[in-house]
Design goal:
106 residues; alpha+beta; 3 strands; elongated
Length: 106
């Protein structure tokens, strides 16, 4: 994830934390960015993406770029969809939006 999206995500909200995790699962690269409450013990939303690692010298780096771009796009979409004046954390804490996984490469 690039620094700009993290700064946009946290700007003026200061009420949550981000946890970024990734793994290689078989022939796929997976990334998950989790938004947590400030206490750090309650997940608010997970953004996930998976991409196949293709053969070649750039296979892994291409998969990493695709997954982080997909997660960035999903977070940016939520930033644009939230009402003005509402924090992203409150917006995605709505029970109808909880635990939504974005996996555009499945």
């Amino acid at each position: 994830m690039n620094r700009q999206i993290v700064e946009e995500l946290l700007a003026g909200h200061g009420e949550g934390k981000l946890v970024v995790s990734h793994r290689i699962h078989g022939t796929d690269f997976e990334v998950m960015v989790s938004l947590l409450q400030a206490s750090g013990n309650t997940f608010v939303r997970d953004y996930c993406a998976r991409a196949p690692i293709l053969a070649g010298t750039n296979g892994l780096s291409d998969a990493v770029a695709k997954t982080f771009t997909a997660v960035h796009t999903a977070i940016n979409g939520d930033l644009k969809a939230k009402p003005a004046g509402m924090s992203l954390f409150k917006f995605v804490s709505d029970p109808t939006r909880r635990d939504v996984f974005v996996r555009p490469f499945d």
